Amino acid sequence: MSFISLGLSKPLLDALAAKDYSQATPIQREAIPAVLTGRDLLGIAQTGTGKTAAFMLPSLDRLAAAKTFPKPGHVRMLVLAPTRELAAQIAASAQAYGRFMRLSVGVIFGGVPNSKSVRTVARGLDVLVATPGRLLDLIDQRALSLRELEILVLDEADQMLDLGFIHALKRIVSLVPPKRQTLFFSATMPKAIKELADRYLSNPAEVAVTPVAKTADRVDQKVVLVNQPEKTALLTMFLQAEKTERTLVFSRTKHGADKIVRMLEAAGIASNAIHGNKSQAQRERAIADFRSARVPVLIATDIAARGIDIPGVSHVINYDLPEVAEQYVHRIGRTARAGAEGKAIAFCAHDERGLLRDIERLTRQKIEVAPLPEGFVQAAEALKRLKPAPKQEERSQRGHRPATKSDRRADGQRREQRNDRQRHPHRADGHAAHRSGAQDRNGQRRDDQRKEGARSSYRPEAYREADAGPRPAGANEARGNFRPDGGQPKRKFHGRRGRPGGPRRAQG
Question: Boundaries of each Helicase ATP-binding domain copy (predicted)?
Fold first, then answer.
């Protein structure tokens, strides 16, 4: 069915034509007419079937038809997403779909300066895509209000509960007007989400175009039984043997993802990691390199398992099986998108057999067991001798300066060379108070003076020579400053009256 028969306005049809979208997916055919009528909606569909367009297209149509403008600090439509990457992707889709409409779109999430988020919502927005944490921060700062909200959308609602957003969701729903349109979308629908939908949806239209937790049809799934210490060797052999365009590898932990990157780097395979410990700039750069195929391998935690639409992902490798079986469905859904075909390979250790059975029970299909490649034992022993690449902090973008002292020394910048630099390079000699202690008043280093045979300006022995000479009788003995054994003369203590000598004590 084409989008023209769904009742969308001409600006939206023009935007879809510019993106070469002509035929609607099953979830779009069922959801768009229901949302256009203003009804609440509960949508269930497997990942990669176009849920974003299913709720964004009719919502933009309704916002444009109302012909109202948002007030400063208010929004008309709010889309909640569990991760930063998904929020940025939804906002980009909204801007593409509404390019021929005079609708403002903004996105806010953590990892960016708070002042930037405040500026984003200051003038008011027609569509705001946000993560729950940053949204509540702006509400607490009174920089954002939800009193004028018309449409509320929860995308990947089941993951929001898994990530512990239930309390944030309850608070956000309590701040929006009771008279609104609410849309719930997810790939899976556990019992907790069903109860939440029944509480916040009013007479919703339910759309379930595919069975719950069904994997994509065009994904060729296989599992390889391997020991846990040999997984890195198996991954390295696979990437060296297969000519893949883009390979997405899922690790269970953040530390494990970084370790895989270092091992692959030692084997000469370029890869990047993305997880919660990475800064927003690092995460965006890693996705951009992966999207453009500059770095064909991306190691990720489950932060990239939901909603991230990267075209051309040919292989998804589950380096570690997920502890929650539903996550397997979302992971392998990163491939075989938009009608393409893909392959999903899982590495299963002995202690992960129970997780594999849970996945097969959930998806109601038996995953084919693939054998280990030929010569795996010998190749694994050789790869075990490779030492992982050392941890390296990312270079500063300004001039690519080394980030740590060890990096500076590795680049040949020794401490002796750094000490030679003046504190104020724009001055000829620098201020006397800012000179290094190794320089005299003329700006010359004492080490250089000694090399030239000259005497240093500071000589402790000069005091001993002066003290050893003849002194007038009674000149210093009375004051107790004369030291017959040489050394610096003793000085009087010049402190505050009524206080004992020595360092000042902290006052109560």
Answer: 32-207
